Fold:
Amino acid sequence: MLTVEVALARAQAAIGMIPGEAAETIASAADPERFDWRGLVAGVHATGNPVVAFVSQLTAIVRAADESAADYVHRGSTSQDILDTATMLLCRDALRRVHTDLLRTAGALAGHAEAHRDTVMAGRTLTQHAVPITFGLKAAGWLGQVLDAITRVERVLATALPVSLGGAAGTLSAYQEFTERDSLDLVEPFAAELGLVAPPAPWHSGRTPIADVAAVLAFVSGSLGKIAADVAVLTRTEIGELAEQGAPGRGASSAMPHKQNPVHTTAVLTAARQVPALVSVLHQCMVVEDERSAGGWHAEWQPLREALRLVVGAAHNGAALTEGLRVFPDRMRANLALTGGAIVSERLGAVLTPVLGKVETKALLTEATAMTADRPDDLPDVLAELLRQHGLDADAHRWRALCDPEEYTGAAARLTDRAIERYRAVVK
Amino acid sequence: MLTVEVALARAQAAIGMIPGEAAETIASAADPERFDWRGLVAGVHATGNPVVAFVSQLTAIVRAADESAADYVHRGSTSQDILDTATMLLCRDALRRVHTDLLRTAGALAGHAEAHRDTVMAGRTLTQHAVPITFGLKAAGWLGQVLDAITRVERVLATALPVSLGGAAGTLSAYQEFTERDSLDLVEPFAAELGLVAPPAPWHSGRTPIADVAAVLAFVSGSLGKIAADVAVLTRTEIGELAEQGAPGRGASSAMPHKQNPVHTTAVLTAARQVPALVSVLHQCMVVEDERSAGGWHAEWQPLREALRLVVGAAHNGAALTEGLRVFPDRMRANLALTGGAIVSERLGAVLTPVLGKVETKALLTEATAMTADRPDDLPDVLAELLRQHGLDADAHRWRALCDPEEYTGAAARLTDRAIERYRAVVK
Amino acid sequence: MLTVEVALARAQAAIGMIPGEAAETIASAADPERFDWRGLVAGVHATGNPVVAFVSQLTAIVRAADESAADYVHRGSTSQDILDTATMLLCRDALRRVHTDLLRTAGALAGHAEAHRDTVMAGRTLTQHAVPITFGLKAAGWLGQVLDAITRVERVLATALPVSLGGAAGTLSAYQEFTERDSLDLVEPFAAELGLVAPPAPWHSGRTPIADVAAVLAFVSGSLGKIAADVAVLTRTEIGELAEQGAPGRGASSAMPHKQNPVHTTAVLTAARQVPALVSVLHQCMVVEDERSAGGWHAEWQPLREALRLVVGAAHNGAALTEGLRVFPDRMRANLALTGGAIVSERLGAVLTPVLGKVETKALLTEATAMTADRPDDLPDVLAELLRQHGLDADAHRWRALCDPEEYTGAAARLTDRAIERYRAVVK
Amino acid sequence: MLTVEVALARAQAAIGMIPGEAAETIASAADPERFDWRGLVAGVHATGNPVVAFVSQLTAIVRAADESAADYVHRGSTSQDILDTATMLLCRDALRRVHTDLLRTAGALAGHAEAHRDTVMAGRTLTQHAVPITFGLKAAGWLGQVLDAITRVERVLATALPVSLGGAAGTLSAYQEFTERDSLDLVEPFAAELGLVAPPAPWHSGRTPIADVAAVLAFVSGSLGKIAADVAVLTRTEIGELAEQGAPGRGASSAMPHKQNPVHTTAVLTAARQVPALVSVLHQCMVVEDERSAGGWHAEWQPLREALRLVVGAAHNGAALTEGLRVFPDRMRANLALTGGAIVSERLGAVLTPVLGKVETKALLTEATAMTADRPDDLPDVLAELLRQHGLDADAHRWRALCDPEEYTGAAARLTDRAIERYRAVVK
Structure:
């Protein structure tokens, strides 16, 4: 808020609303160390917002420095102008940190995608092996999601964080009292001082900036949550295809020395469980009556702060998670073998349908996979045998080849390449 | 889903994956009337998704038309490709209707803003009169919010609604089985058939499109909710500054013949209470494990459908509300008079501060407004008297002029003009 | 609503407010078949609630039967009395079905707990094997959760579903107009007609009953969601300790004949993702202004209906899931062996601490488990060797016994017995 | 957590698991001042939970006091036992404070209800005057809601806050290692030490206690929110029927000296906007996989803490709000007069229906209220005139009496008495 009051004073000086020296006196007096923080907290309880007590302390501090400058503090302003603008600075700072960590994450994922472009693993749907994919494709999918998040964060950082300047009820009338010029002329220099956007109108009760930030926080949290949800599955003891890089002591259990808990994954999932609900409060707070609502504005403060905190943390953990991710191609291959050829039953269907028709094919494959449920390696032979019973010439060798999951990854490699290209275009 | 299967077949024909005649047979057989809808519902219960039974009925219908074409139905496809693409069509249809109604709303608001550019009314904060505003500014504020919503809806309509094409686990491998060409070549013609976007990658488990739609739904709902929240206040019996245009019979009470309920306002507020929570489910559903989640995908269906329905309804009611809104400037003036000059105490402060200093000024104004709480018209005289007691020369006439709320609306008129200009730029 | 109007008429007849014959005429005319349903839907759009058109149709129907009885329809009543009471009937019906299915679920789980009281499996925390548990204990934990849900459903069914009777603004004044008796005397017979509770006061704007139902719906959904979340893990291809009983055709994939999707599990998880957000809307709708809110009441309708639908479905699927659950003790044992003795490292710590002290013990176990990470069976020997290096007498046999997970299940069996006892007490 | 570790040690001493002296050494060493709080925070980051570092510091502190006692610290325990039990203590403390403030609120409301048993005011529905009520009834309605909240808080305090005791995966096996007795015997003395409930089973992944607390927090928040929503309406400048008692300096505006913001009301509404969403996170966190979830447990911490904080604050503000509430019966009467007799049109309908029939009556009243919309006092005369035109004998005096809102408050007084009686029964 200090930064905001200083910027406001300087902007007012720039349009001749207050003397330039007063602005500089305010600027040089504005030292966080001089504030009585307990008094500020008490002030929140007394007035229902943190600005009233803050302005009164700041006025006293400035007065101590220069009696005449004190009356220029917070001139024409209202609590919400200061607090909303300070909130935008907070959002910018948080989103910049998020952006940095998302770039790290994207870089790490592009590396994994490239390294494992052809590492075959089981694709899973509804908890079951479905058809083969590659780990490259999986990493590429995560990368695409992170790039989507990056572009949305960049859009908000570039265009969606405005200063707030409206006075008591959005008319800037108190600012107008102190200047011959159009009070709206104050907006641009105020925004320029802080590097924020000059909004088309005051937004005290039109909460577009909060809604835009909220949406991007939900997006980032969900995007990282997707990655963490996958990692949580793939690091399971029985699956073991991935592991978090364990820093010494991190993720240690208090009772079980052998355990290495996936702490980054857990942290990301923890955030992902909370952010959508916090964002729903922020969306709900768009619905406010009057020029300032009784409660609607105030209810934004804590959820926004908390959502920012969680997403900054999630982005940081997401970077650590992806940069340190250990990949075990052998386990991927071993798991893939669990269902033998059944994992390519879709392909077998595609091959058989032109010969047997759709219905017959489905029946035959269902029978064959049921028969080999506990000896999946025998699927090719069983299939060949069943086809022979149908009077068809069936070559077990050919079926063995068709059942090889490595040969059934479709466009995985090309999609991986595309995602890497997209990454290069985004970060260039 | 029918439209989607037809588009898929035609796209497959376009790249030579299936015969062109087969695609046209599917297209001409695709008649909603031929489906057994009860059977489809039963199919959802049996398989957990609506596509399996649908494809099986469609296959039968096509087979009845042309035995040989049946095997080309749904070729290489998976439930999620069909359902997600159909969902995007649904979103497009809904958002187009929302867009149309938001434009109507913006037009109506621009009209109100222009007509009431200089209609003074009380600005209210935390339920209390604060400083004067104009109804033009209030309408301009609503208009700005609606324009923000329009630009966001347009962005989603133009760029954020892709087809889904990934096959069982995002590799398109089953499509690949049926063509010599790159299966990814199927994406562009499929998108072109439907007028949707070609996505950079399959999005079965990367839910960017749903998240983007969700965010815009929350935004529209909140924007209209803000307007309705204000109208609900201003139509109160005691305030009476606005009224919904009552169509005969609409908003009638079953027991109280004199009552005209604000039904459009109520409908918008009803939606606004629900949409943020539904959107939070959609954001939560970004966090899905595997190539398709057990529950994460399915949990999107109903909240998305419901949120679309609510927002389409809210936009429709919002248009009716704003187009039919009756404005009562006399009541605005009368209400403004309730607090007499106290509503401009901020201005009085600005005038007195240079003379008395900040602290003294506040004390004096607090005293004067307390003294005249139940006879607000006397404020100028009381002020003059108090100033005289402070040894200052005080002219009651001047104070009466300063206390005129009509003279204290700051940048309201200019902000109103700006919003109307912005409206013209957006709808041009 | 028909049931409610009939009950109201009969209650009014019981206290002499209307003639008994009129009540019976209303009762016998009240046939859903006679209503014009499209007209009712149109009425909702016109008036913003479904009761106005309904009462007008009912009046016409009764008039057709007996001119004189028509004026007794809906006498003194208001939309909300009818709709809220009808909603309570709906809640009762839904919660009874939920209750029945929860009892089935509890029975199934008690059976599993008993059958697998001593079936050892891996306990998992943060996705990793932690210490051994039994499947009996796991089923007992689920059972406890379901019993908690049952007791809460029973409490709501028994005490929390009242009739609504308040008239236009909660004073019952319109009812009072038609009787010499105290209008409050109408409440008891009205409640008795419907088997609902007589509330202490009208609850048009005091939404205790909705909040109580909402809380129990969230509770049931979460309780079943916990079970489904566990089943989803344990049915994974690599883990395979549980499987849903596949009914023929259920859970079939449209493209992959070999797959059996866990459809009940998925359905329960689908509901569990949505219900908390719907419940949050209902909780939010407690905050309503006035004797009836503009939007607050209306926003309850759809989320409540949807939450009831989801929880009824979840309970039904939960019963099918648990009754048909297949348990594979061999896979449990095989998975348990994956980490060899490491899964009892906690126990080894307990044994070593008195000898080596806490710090030394932790270091030694961390070393031993790290050394045997990929040959877990060797843990006992490695431990014995390390202890010998510490100058301690170490018997490999003893360490092999200590490393047996079957011998380290603590109070699992006794806790299982307790849960079964509790089940018997609840269902007795 | 300190309290919990001490209680655990004493309970273990009580069943002979550790020496009594060790327990007392731990108890006397357990001094919050001795902890390195920065180290604890760093520990959270390193291990993902606050217990690991805490136990290690506590062990060091105890070791410094008595080398031999150190090994008895946290014996057999796991982070979650300590943290969940500490959370229950926190919930108890918060709910006790809430309970105290709800009792104050109920007392204040009972006072208002009694004092204004016969103070007539306008009942409002959908923002419009509907029929007359009394302020006594309104206060009684709020009181009923608060009494509902009190009984639910009492139920949770009495029965729903258990200790957590399960060890690493709910089997208590590590506790079992250190005792010849049944490890379950530890539960009762542990609960007794802390005055908490002994649960039927460990609840690490069966989150009944959290869900119960969550539900009651949503209930309290919503109940107080209802009151605040009403007060926010009735304190509006134009309505002015209620006002918050302004403590000097409280609710002051930074820019507008005349304004007295309703800060308690705003604070309660601020909480009410947030709590339902936080509660939805807690309900969602019932759905956790495994014996301890990766993220599901951790995601409870902050929302629970925040919801407790908000509800404690709301209850405190609710008490201040209701105790200091100023009531203005004159304004209530004046506002009631705004709609003249129209506010009793429902009654007029009841009187006319037997004479004119339902349809005719509605038409006539709609006409009469439309004709007198801007001169409501003339309604009785206009009605009498219209009736005469219908050939009915109409006495203007009688109609004037029927139009008196004071005579049309139905069961308001009796409902007020009942609520006060109920209050006395609850607080007795």
Notes: The interface with chain C takes residues 122, 124-131, 232-233, 235-239, 253, 255-262, 265-266, 277, 280, 284, 335, 338-339, 342-343, 345-346, 349, 362, 365-366, 369 of chain A (CB under 8 Å). DSSP finds 17 helices and four strands in chain A. Chain A has three domains: 19-74, 85-164+205-334, 338-407.
